């Protein structure tokens, strides 16, 4: 496996050309000129000027003035539409959230840092003055008493002020950078995972679990802490954060996906990462010289971004396009900065012969535990799985998604993702940062779970979990006793998963299987289904489904599903087998 700068440039150009085609032109109105329209959401996402780095890169590489014009008009639009009293930028026209101004300011700063002398002086000076003003304003709002953001903003402040110090040489920015980094330095659990993607950062649940979001950690927070160390020229801190980054590589799937099936901000999960964060390509290429596993992770994820891109649009998962949903343009412009930095900083020799480099989830290690033992990762043969009984929930009950000892993610090399957890109830927590589905039914929960009346096991914090096994076979047992007496057992071997369920009362086991609308599903008999001529799902009881031809799309993960239902008889063991041919 090799990745070249030519490939990186091609994808970046494809995204930028797509964004240019959806930019308002021919209107000399400061409130509209240069605005980027989102085909999915029907409005302008206020952070689209984050694309300034990618546009300017394309201008310097191609000489085509249209890219520089687009970058300059994006900055002008932001100045006219989302300027805050402090001189930073709001997240959106109709939002009063300040925090993301840090990331927009960093995009401006990265552009100046990388292209000084390569863009017209008048434009450079204009952007430089805006950057200096945003730096001053960011110092102010980061210290407001009411400003209590989640941890990725502290990481962002550390990186941004480090960049400010690197560029401007003002000691106050060095002080700010070190202060915000110091608040992140010890926010790592015993497994090396960054916590604090929650309120308050230090919350510990009854089970000893923390607010950890792998999507935000891998695509943003870790990347920013690495950049802090790079801009501060601090080798000790760089080694420290490299070690923490290695711990997070446990959650890069063999196909480049980021496993955030249990994350505290799971509602933003797409299969490749998180909707509004930057991407693993941001800093990993710069530290690949220390450990080529960073190059492998960035390259695999880049390949997934390519596979999720259709006609220039970055779709939220592998099946969104096929479901007929338009792509939210936020996905593309949010990730252009990371891919542009990858192009600027990657050394192609670090990205050659990557098949020789093995990531943790590519290894057949049997089982690993995280989150105080309540999160289990399984790796046997070509099978990968995540089973979660953590009890963390972010803010509102609708964010419950990762409890109950359910099968949060099941993946096989031959089939791809088989099961993937979603929110229990999905709603637009951040309306301007999520997309509304255009061409699909309501968003239903697609987490495998036990159901009895109003009880659904994916919302049950009280279950206990245990595991045993080796790299040939893993057994996981889940016991529920407080809300519903049940026992759920999983047996994982190379090409097969056996699920055994027994409940004290008649209930239902819902098992949504990922399958796109072009793939055939055959009912071999009332107890056995064949998916895409690869996966067989069988049971010792009848398997029901509403309509074998109907697919349900969920934007969390970006998959289509066929939900299977299996009746559970009180005190009788129901056995389900998922087998890959």
Provide structural commentary:
There is one protein chain. This protein has 581 residues and is an alpha+beta fold. The protein has two domains: 5-357, Alpha/alpha barrel (Glycosyltransferase), CATH 1.50.10; 367-580, Distorted Sandwich (Beta-galactosidase, Chain A, domain 5), CATH 2.70.98.10. The protein is built from twelve helices and 22 strands. The strands form five sheets. An eight-stranded antiparallel beta sheet has the order 12-13-14-15-22-19-18-17, with no helix packed on it. The mean pLDDT is 95.
Structural class: alpha+beta
Mean pLDDT, as a whole number? 95
Task: Give the low-pLDDT segments.
Answer: none
CATH topology of the largest domain: Glycosyltransferase
Residues in β-strands, percent: 15-25%
Fraction of helical residues: 25-40%
Q: Rg from C-alpha positions?
A: 24 Å
The coarse overall form would be: globular
Overall CATH class of the largest domain:
Mainly Alpha
The largest β sheet comes out as: 8 strands, antiparallel
Query: What's the architecture of the largest domain, going by CATH?
Result: Alpha/alpha barrel
What is the number of helical segments per DSSP (H or I, 4+ residues)?
Answer: 12
For the record, the count of structural domains works out to: 2
Number of strands: 22
Strand order of the largest sheet: 12-13-14-15-22-19-18-17
In whole angstroms, the N-to-C terminal distance is: 26 Å
């Amino acid at each position: 496996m090799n990745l070249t700068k030519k490939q990186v440039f091609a994808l970046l150009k494809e995204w930028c050309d797509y964004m240019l085609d959806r930019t308002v032109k021919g209107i000399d109105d400061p409130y509209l000129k240069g605005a980027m329209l989102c085909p999915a959401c029907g409005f302008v996402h206020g952070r689209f000027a984050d694309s300034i780095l990618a546009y300017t890169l394309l201008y310097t590489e191609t000489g085509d003035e249209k890219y520089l014009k687009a970058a300059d008009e994006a900055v002008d639009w932001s100045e006219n539409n989302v300027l805050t009293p402090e001189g930073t930028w709001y997240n959106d026209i109709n939002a009063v959230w300040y925090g993301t101004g840090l990331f927009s300011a960093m995009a401006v700063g990265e552009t100046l840092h990388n292209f000084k002398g390569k863009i017209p002086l008048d434009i450079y000076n204009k952007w430089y003055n805006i950057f200096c003003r945003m730096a001053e304003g960011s110092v102010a709002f980061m210290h407001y008493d009411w400003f209590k953001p989640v941890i990725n903003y502290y990481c962002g402040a550390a990186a941004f002020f480090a960049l400010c110090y690197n560029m401007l040489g003002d000691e106050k920015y060095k002080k700010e950078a070190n202060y915000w980094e110091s608040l992140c330095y010890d926010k790592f659990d015993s497994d090396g995972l960054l916590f604090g993607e929650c309120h308050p950062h230090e919350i510990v649940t009854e089970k000893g679990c923390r607010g950890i979001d792998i999507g935000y950690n891998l695509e943003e927070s870790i990347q920013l802490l690495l950049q802090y160390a790079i801009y501060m020229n601090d080798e000790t801190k760089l080694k420290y954060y490299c070690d923490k980054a290695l711990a997070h590589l446990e959650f890069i799937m063999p196909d480049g996906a980021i496993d955030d099936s249990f994350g505290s901000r799971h509602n933003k999960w797409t299969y490749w990462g998180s909707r509004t964060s930057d991407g693993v390509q941001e800093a990993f290429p710069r530290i690949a010289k220390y450990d080529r596993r960073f190059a492998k992770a960035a390259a695999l994820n880049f390949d997934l971004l390519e596979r999720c891109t259709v006609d220039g649009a970055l779709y939220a998962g592998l099946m969104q396009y096929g479901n007929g949903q338009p792509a939210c343009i936020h996905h593309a412009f949010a990730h252009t900065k990371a891919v542009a930095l990858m192009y600027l900083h990657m050394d192609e020799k670090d990205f050659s012969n990557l098949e020789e480099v093995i990531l943790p989830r590519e290894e057949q290690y049997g089982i690993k535990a995280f989150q105080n033992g309540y999160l289990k990762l399984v790796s046997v043969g070509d099978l990968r799985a995540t089973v979660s009984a953590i009890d963390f929930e972010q803010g509102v009950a609708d964010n419950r998604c990762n409890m109950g000892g359910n099968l949060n993610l099941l993946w096989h090399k031959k089939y791809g993702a088989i099961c993937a957890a979603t929110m229990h109830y999905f709603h637009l927590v951040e309306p301007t940062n999520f997309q509304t589905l255009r061409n699909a039914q309501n968003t239903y929960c697609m987490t495998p779970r036990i159901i009895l009346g109003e009880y659904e096991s994916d919302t049950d914090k009280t279950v206990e979990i245990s595991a045993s096994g080796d790299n040939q076979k893993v057994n996981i047992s889940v016991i529920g006793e407080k809300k519903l007496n049940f026992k759920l057992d999983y047996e994982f071997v190379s090409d097969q998963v056996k699920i055994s369920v027994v409940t004290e009362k008649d209930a239902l086991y819902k098992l949504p299987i990922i399958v796109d609308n072009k793939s055939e599903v055959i009912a071999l008999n009332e107890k056995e289904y064949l998916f895409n001529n690869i996966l067989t799902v069988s049971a010792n009881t009848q398997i029901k489904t509403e309509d074998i031809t109907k697919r349900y799309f969920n934007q969390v993960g970006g998959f289509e599903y066929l939900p299977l239902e299996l009746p559970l008889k009180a005190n009788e063991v129901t056995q389900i087998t998922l087998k890959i041919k």
